[in-house]
Amino acid sequence: MLIVRNSRFALSTIFAVNGALFGTWASRIPAISNIHDLSPATLGFLIFLAGSSAVVAFSIFGRAADRYGAAYVTKRATCLLIPLTLIFIAYANSIWMLAAAMIFFGGIHGGVDVSMNAWAAEIERKNDRPIMSSFHAMWSLGAGIGAGIGAILASYNIGIQMHFTIISIVIFLVILSILSIPFQSEKKERENNAPFISIPKGPLLSVAFITFFASLGEGAVADWSAIFLISVASINDGSAALGFTVFSICMFAMRLMGDKIAFKFGPSKTARYSGLVALTGSIILLLFESLTPLLIGFSLIGLGIAVIIPLAFSRAGNDKNVSQGKAIASIATLGYGGMLLGPLFVGFIAEATSIKTSFFILPLLTLLIFLLSKHLSIKSQ
Questions:
Q1: What share of the chain is helix, strand, coil (3-state, %, to 5)?
Q2: Cα–Cα 20 to 30 A to 354, which of 176, 199, 248, 330?
Q3: For residue 99, which of 33, 163, 149, 50 has the smallest C-alpha distance?
Q4: 239 burial class (0-12, 13-18, 19+ CB within 10 angstroms)?
Q5: Segment 54-110, tens digit of pLDDT
Q6: Largest CA-CA distance found in the chain, in angstroms, rounded
Q7: Where are the alpha helices (DSSP H) in 234-290?
């Protein structure tokens, strides 16, 4: 059990680091957009490139996790590659270099997401009770801290290059300190005739759609909440980061309780009522234009979406018919890619209409989560 506890600490740290990476990026989107003079459609297309790269990386990292062990792949990729994603974005001096940086960002961030969730599924099985939500709570904590630091530095006009360089160095040193923590991951040889891209089939298809709807909503808030608040509430860049900050804090708080709630009520019922909470928050965003109710709306969306993705990954990682790396990669291909692919839709809708109109997508997504929630139970297999 000591190995499980140590591995849980190491993986919790990795989840927090990956959350901080995303929160750091999300907090400076307005500044990056201003530096490169990006329109909403162009910004959406750049995020689409990142999403496309992530879809390819899901299967690559899923296969690597099965073959070499999820712990091995996760620790080394996070230490060596994750810090470089911020460096490349910060020092991109043209739209083409920024596009290349976004492709690298999407591929590495998406790939590590698959391998660390595969590792989390292993630790959860050894622990004999739900703990997936607690790992994702650390992701949300990291995202909130990353976004909060970004908001503070933006308010003091600290440049993106200095900001991202410091965060990259911190990430590298933190992960370096936990590389030696041991964990023997499960390994499985590659299937000879397996397709390159893992596509969910059977019961996992519904799980993938639920993950897609949840992650698309999370991606819309992460990538567009700051611009949404600037447009709707007429606030400055520093205050605009508060939307994603409160969203992440509420996700963190809910995910801390998520394992106990899911254990008591079951994954389907937990997801059903979570969808209703997120739906309420989405409607608030569309009805009000002042900062306080808008922050309440983002908070409710965070509370509602919080446990959906952990429940989906737990369901996939414990599938009886598919290896954990392949199963998680398959739902990530259709599902979790929504965090990176979804903002493309928001960008084009905002370009054609307005940023507020584009957020009408959120009530639809949360309603679909509510309707499909029954498929998150392993009994639905």
A1: 80, 0, 20
A2: 248
A3: 50
A4: middle
A5: 878 887 888 888 888 888 899 999 999 999 999 999 999 999 999 999 999 999 998
A6: 57
A7: 237-240, 242-265, 267-287
* Average pLDDT of the segment spanning 149-165: 89
Task: Using alpha carbons, select from 32, 166, 27, 55 the residue that is nearest to residue 101.
Answer: 32
Residues 6+ apart with CB under 8 A from 143: 19, 20, 22, 23, 26, 222, 244, 248, 251
Give CA–CA dist 111/69, Å, rounded: 14
**Among 342, 134, 335, 337, which Cα is nearest to 225's?**
342
> How far is residue 116's CA from residue 142's CA, in Å, rounded to a whole number?
15
**The token pair that represents 142 in the structure block:** 């990291």
Distance CA 122, CA 323 (A): 11
* Distance in angstroms (rounded) separating the CA atoms of residues 225 and 231: 10
CA distance 346 to 229: 15
With CA atoms as reference, report the closest residue to 101 among 115, 79, 81: 81
Q: Name, in order, each residue with C-beta under 8 angstroms of 191's C-beta and a sequence gap of 6 or more.
A: none
Please provide residue 200's backbone torsions phi and psi, each rounded to the nearest 5 degrees.
Answer: -70, 140
* Nearest residue to 171 via CA among 35, 295, 24: 24
Quickly name the fold that domain 2-180+198-380 has. Growth Hormone; Chain: A; (1.20.1250)
Helix, coil or strand: residue 97: helix
Give the CA distances from residue 379 to residues 265, 317, 359, in Å, rounded to whole numbers and listed in that order.
Answer: 14, 14, 34
pLDDT in tens, 280-290: 999 999 998 88
The CA distances from residue 85 to 10, 22, 166, 333, in Å, are 21, 10, 13, 21
CA distances from 362 to 119, 305, 368 (A): 31, 11, 10
CA 258 – CA 288 distance, rounded (Å): 29
Instruction: Tell whether the model's pLDDT for residue 309 goes beyond 80.
Output: yes
pLDDT in the model for residue 195:
56
- State the first-to-last Cα distance of the chain, in angstroms, to the nearest integer: 30
CA separation for the pair 55, 69 (Å, rounded): 20
Chain-centroid distance of CA 135 in Å reads 12
CA distance 267 to 225: 28
